[in-house]
Specification:
This protein is an alpha+beta fold and about 140 residues long. It has four helices and eight strands, in the order αββββαβββαβα. It has a single domain, classed as 2-Layer Sandwich (STM4215-like), CATH 3.30.2000. The strands form two sheets. Strands 3, 4, 5, 6, 7 and 8 form a six-stranded mixed β-sheet that branches. It has a two-stranded antiparallel ribbon with strand order 1-2.
Length: about 140
């Protein structure tokens, strides 16, 4: 029985889907309008049990971005989905900022993180579909 339970837990490179974590990616913004310095477009899928915690993590990310002196532009509306019809939920947010990923130091959030190179410039519905196929 225990082996069946282990097999049923879907993992993201050693991070269970039904656990607190962040899936993220970054690319050059398609809406680059900041002269010669390209804006970075960040994609974050934040998974946690409570809406307030997901929002708090999102706010911490924005704070990290603004501490570098960059303004943060929210791109499109955030959306939420439930993870595997369980107690965890996912908040997806997209930001443009003049912040390099290594300066952002997401590791300092003390949350398991994983860069997902497939989480990128798709249409919003395509990103929502991509995340729904993984988490639902």
């Amino acid at each position: 029985m225990e082996n069946d339970k282990k097999k049923s837990i879907k993992m993201i490179k050693e991070i269970p889907l039904e656990s607190k974590h962040i899936r993220w990616n970054v690319e050059i913004s398609k809406d680059n309008f900041h002269m010669d310095i390209p804006l970075a477009r960040y994609y974050f899928a934040i998974v946690d049990k409570r809406d307030a915690y997901r929002k708090e993590i999102s706010d911490k990310i924005i704070t990290k971005m603004t501490k570098t002196g960059s303004s943060v532009i929210q791109i499109e509306s955030p959306f939420e989905i439930q993870v595997k019809k369980g107690e965890y939920g996912l908040l997806f947010v997209t930001y443009d900022a003049l912040v390099k990923p290594e300066i952002l130091n997401l590791e300092n959030l003390n949350i398991p993180i994983r860069r997902d190179y497939e989480l990128k410039g798709k249409k919003v519905l395509d990103i929502e579909d991509y995340l729904t196929r993984i988490y639902e």
